[in-house]
Every structure is written in structure tokens, then in C-alpha cells.
Amino acid sequence: MIEDKNQQKTQLSDLGEFGLIDHLTKNFKINHKSTIKSIGDDAAVLDFKDKKIVVTTDLLVEGVHFDLSYMPLKHLGYKSVIVNLSDIFAMNAKATQITVSIAVSNRFPLEALEDLYAGIETAAKIYNIDVVGGDTTSSTTGLLISVTAIGEVENNNEVYREGAKPSDLLVVTGDLGAAYMGLQVLEREKEVYKVNPNSQPDLEAYSYIIERQLKPEARKDIIKLLKDLDVKPSSMIDISDGLSSEIIHLCKHSKVGCDLYEEKIPLDPQVISTCEEFNIDSTTVALNGGEDYELLFTISQDDYSKIKANPNFTVIGYMKEAQAGMHLVTRADTKIPIKAQGWKNFNA
Amino acid sequence: MIEDKNQQKTQLSDLGEFGLIDHLTKNFKINHKSTIKSIGDDAAVLDFKDKKIVVTTDLLVEGVHFDLSYMPLKHLGYKSVIVNLSDIFAMNAKATQITVSIAVSNRFPLEALEDLYAGIETAAKIYNIDVVGGDTTSSTTGLLISVTAIGEVENNNEVYREGAKPSDLLVVTGDLGAAYMGLQVLEREKEVYKVNPNSQPDLEAYSYIIERQLKPEARKDIIKLLKDLDVKPSSMIDISDGLSSEIIHLCKHSKVGCDLYEEKIPLDPQVISTCEEFNIDSTTVALNGGEDYELLFTISQDDYSKIKANPNFTVIGYMKEAQAGMHLVTRADTKIPIKAQGWKNFNA
């Protein structure tokens, strides 16, 4: 038999709004005692007893935050959850619930939204999150996803961007710059594909950095680890816009300065080799690339012994008095002011 | 002096994302003790002690939910808050915080977003809500607003869509159909304007219905009133999609049937006269028009004496056993099954 390449697709209009929500969310399970009422009423009802609640929201727009020519919808659904959970973890909190709203044009068949929700469901399962609400609507063009994440934290355990003190150590989890370099590879492949749609790309050598771009993870494990190590950071933020931008946030909110050591910035070997291939400075990528979803935090020097042996953590600098300013100390031992100039202007 | 009609507009790119959020939210004040940390960190932190929390979210898309040719941006900002608060009140809860995310194309100058946020700020002030977070991003086309609202309710005071019992009375607040007829007038004026841009519309006769469309209110007052009257509804929902659709939701969730009396449906005289002018059946408008943001609820017959003298409430029917079905009892005393067919098919 000849394969039917034009499989029947289901039009969204066949289901209607209520039918669509029911269909897409029917597999979502409730796991948290705090979720009293989930999808299906005017609002969700949550009960956190005597804990504090943290709330964050992010909007992902097609053509701005993602390109469906290389971002599979399942990965997009997964990533849209991750970017929000990362903000909850950056408060030293446990993520418990999300709401997911999407606006979608009628160029997407039902099967596309099923893929998107499969990714959302996978993230919800892995991170143990209840999906408790949302809204599904049509858009005149493109796809847009709005996620709100809710979490809980024991009183006095919450960590803000403010709170860092001079002489505190600046610590980062994981490694930096990979998501940005993954994007560069994907965009190069897209250009190659445009010229020759039959080309078969071999992306084996870029597997780590592409995964960091298409299927990032949020550092839930770090929140547990910090608790187990009995370390409460003095300030914390997640790295979504790039190390420079996040350091500036911590310093401004905490009213301190900072020395960041270039040689200490953790880079994966694949980031280094791909930067060489693209003739891009790897430090610049780490500082300005963004989308790493690692955690950046400060701790008292007294806590150094608790984290020093752990491979998840790299001490990359220390905080100073505000008037000392924020500087990158280069390998050549020169000091360059840290600015959030964005990618293009950084070397200007 | 000749008036300068080309006032200098500020491009969004001049401010950058962080500057834009700071600029637009600098006037927002915090009024709730439960708001521990607001805009400016990875997430907001809220503390509700021993109350339950309710959460709802809605997405408003240009070209789908609003038309900027007759919807002023300030009103749009106001309405985007109202539609969410209405869902919180429909849980018998108090609204306390919102997050607001917008995606906006670069055809909007800063001044347009200032108008939008002025409307959001006005709604926040009038309804005593703290704006605690959000996201501002670019879009490739048009404007999109995503609002998440959070509220609190004393334990056991929450009211769901389920809970109505046979013989319970069906009660609605205010009057119905006005927002839909306001939209019809505005769309007619838009067509007139296209033909003759110099026409000066006289909309005096439609002031109430246009206000219901452009600047709706949510029934915060009803939640207080029900408490003062010591009435806890057995089920409740807000009227966003039209009376038919909401009755079906209550009946399905509560596993009951319903008789709705056509002659009891509350209509404003302006709705009746405009329906006559447009040659549309006013009952059909009330049943299917939507965007009324009134509350629809059921109460035990024992509570009837508490609400009967109050002009805010109209008893429009009563609940029956599920097998009796859901019916509209017409003025001619015939029974028509209630269906959520949407506007166009209702008379088919």
C-alpha cells in the first residue's frame, strides 16, 4: 500500500472551545493536597495552610521567543512550563500548580495542540505540578502561550534578589551559554535547509547544546540540595537573560557591587568547541546568551565548606561594596565593567 | 498657534523591556497584607494564612476579543481586569492580586501602553487589587493581554458550579444582553464611519449598552451583599458566554435540570428598544449574547425571604431533577430545550 501522507487532521472548530479544553486536559492528574479544585470552574481553589505562596508568569510568542521550523511543539510545551518553574525555584520555593493559556490560529490542527499539551503534561509529570486552569482562544496569527506558575515556601525560607552582602560568594549551578549556541546551530541548519531541503544534517556533535535550547530543565534538584546542605542563599535569581543581566539584578536589588572571574565561568566543552567553530567569544556567550535556566545565588563565606565539594556548584566571584561597582576580571587580569548591553553591542 | 497633530511618540525600543515594565508599573501601590513581595523579583510572594486561594486566568486577543477601532485602550485595560475579577467573585471569593502580561507589536508607541495601564490601574484601585507581576514582550502582530487573578476565601465559604439541588431557585444579578447590543451598535457605527469618516454619531440613546460593552463592571458588591444577607449560594458562575451556556454549566456540574422562565429574564429598557431597532429577539440576546459579567447562582428555597426584596436579584427559574432536562418556558407557556448553540444557530 502507498502511504497516505495526508493524514486526516481535525479542525479546532469541530470541537468548540469547551470541547477543546476538555480534550486537551483530560489526562492531567492532580497530585497536590493543596489543589482543592482544578480545571472546570470559574477559578481554581488552592489551600496552602500556613505557607507563603509564590506566583510568576511568562508569555511565549511565536516569531519572538520560538521558531516552529525547528522547535517541535512537544518541546515547546515542555519549555513553556520550565521557564516558569525556573522562576519559582529561584525564590527557593517548591512549584505546585500552573495555569496554561494559549492563543492559536486556525492553521494549527488539533493534533498540533495535542503535541503541545503532551509536552506540558510531560513537564507537569516530571516536575510534579498540577495543571489547574487556563484559557484557550483563537488568534489572528500564530501561536502564543501564557503560563502562570504557583509555588509554596515555608515561612522565612523564601529568597529574594535582595539580600546579598559584601564578601558573599557568587555561585552558579551547571554551565552557561549552551542554549544560545544550540540556537546558533539550529538557525544555521535552517538556512542550509532553505537552500537544500534534501540535506540531512548531522547534529551529533551538537547534541548537548541543542537539547539545552529545545528541552531545557529547571533546577528543582538544587532547591532540595540546598535544603539538604542546610544552605540558605542570601539572594538568588534564575539565568534567563544571561549572566551579566542577572548579576546586575542581584547587585542593584541588594545594593552591592561584584567581581566576576572570567576563568571561573563554567562552560561545557561543546560550547567551547562550537564557539570556536562560529568564531564567537565563549565568555561573551555565557554573559549574554541567556535561556540557561541555571540558578545564580550568593552565600555567606561561612557556608563555603558546605558547597565546595559539590559538582553542581561553581563559585564565580564575590560581592563587594556598591561603590566598588560590578566588574568582570578577565583572564588577563584586567577589569571590565559588567553591562547588560545585549549580545550585539557587547564587544563594541 | 497651529496645533501640532503629530505629537512626538516614544518608541518602545527606546526603553527596553525592564525599563518598560518599571515605567508602566511605577504607580501601582500595594494595599493587601497578603502581598509580601510584588513586581521586581522572579516571582511574587503572597501570604494568605489559613484561607483558601482562588486563581483564574483569561487571554484577550486583538481581532478576536476586542477591536481597537472602537475600544479605547484605557477601557481595554480596565475590561481585561474585570473579566478576571468576575471569575474570582463567582467563587464567592475576595479578589486580592493580579498579574498582567502583554504582547505588543511595535506599531504601538509607549503612550498607547500608558493608556492601557492607566485602565488597569483604575480597575486595580476601584476593586482594591494589587498588581504583583507580569511579563511584557513584543509580538509580530497586534496586542494580546493575559491576566491572572488571585483571590482568597474563608474556609467553607467557596462556591462551585456544582452544588445546586432540585427545587433550588435560579437567581441572576443585574440585567442581561446589554453588552451584546452595545457591540452591535458599535459595529454599525464602524461601518458608517468607513463609508463617511466625517459622520458625527449620536450615541446618547445607547449610552448604557455601550458602557456595558466598553466598560463592564464585576459584581464585587454582590459577594459582600450575600454575606450581609447570610446567603451562601449552593452553586454559582459568572455570565461571560451568555445565560444559556452558564445554565448548562451549572446543571451539568450539579447533575440537575432546570426550568428557566422567559418572562422573568431581566432586560434593561435600552436593550429592549435596541433589539426592536435591530429586529433581534431580546430573549435570544440575553440567552446567547454574553459579556454581561453578572452572577448566576442557585439558593435553597429557605433563603428566598432573604433576597426577595432586593433589586439586585431576579429569580428566573428553579432547578429540577437531571432527567427533567433543561428548558426555557416561553411567554406562550411552551417548553424549549436550552442549548448552547451560539448566537447564529439559535433560531435555526
From TrEMBL, chains A, B:
Give the residues the record marks as binding Mg(2+) 5: D241
Q: Which of UniProt's keywords are assigned here?
A: ATP-binding, Kinase, Magnesium, Metal-binding, Nucleotide-binding, Thiamine biosynthesis, Transferase
Positions contributing to Mg(2+) 2 binding:
D58, D87
Pathway of action: Cofactor biosynthesis; thiamine diphosphate biosynthesis; thiamine diphosphate from thiamine phosphate: step 1/1
Where does the signal sequence lie?
Answer: none
Q: Which residues bind ATP?
A: Y117, G134, D135, R161, S240
**Which InterPro entries does this chain map to?**
PurM-like_C_sf, PurM-like_N, PurM-like_N_sf, ThiL-like
The protein's annotated catalytic reaction(s) are:
thiamine phosphate + ATP = thiamine diphosphate + ADP
Q: What class of enzyme is it?
A: transferase
Give me the residues that bind Mg(2+) 1, please: T57, D58, D135
Q: Name one GO biological process term.
A: thiamine biosynthetic process
UniProt: Mg(2+) 4 binding residues = D42, T56, D87
Domain PurM-like N-terminal, residue spans: 40-153
Q: Where does substrate bind?
A: H65, E291, W343
Q: What Pfam families has UniProt attached to this entry?
A: AIRS
Q: Which PANTHER family match?
A: THIAMINE-MONOPHOSPHATE KINASE
Additional observations: Reaction mechanism of ThiL seems to utilize a direct, inline transfer of the gamma-phosphate of ATP to TMP rather than a phosphorylated enzyme intermediate.
Its biological purpose: Catalyzes the ATP-dependent phosphorylation of thiamine-monophosphate (TMP) to form thiamine-pyrophosphate (TPP), the active form of vitamin B1.
The entry's family comment says: Belongs to the thiamine-monophosphate kinase family.
Annotated NCBIfam families: thiL
The protein's name is: Thiamine-monophosphate kinase
Organism expressing this protein natively: Flavivirga rizhaonensis
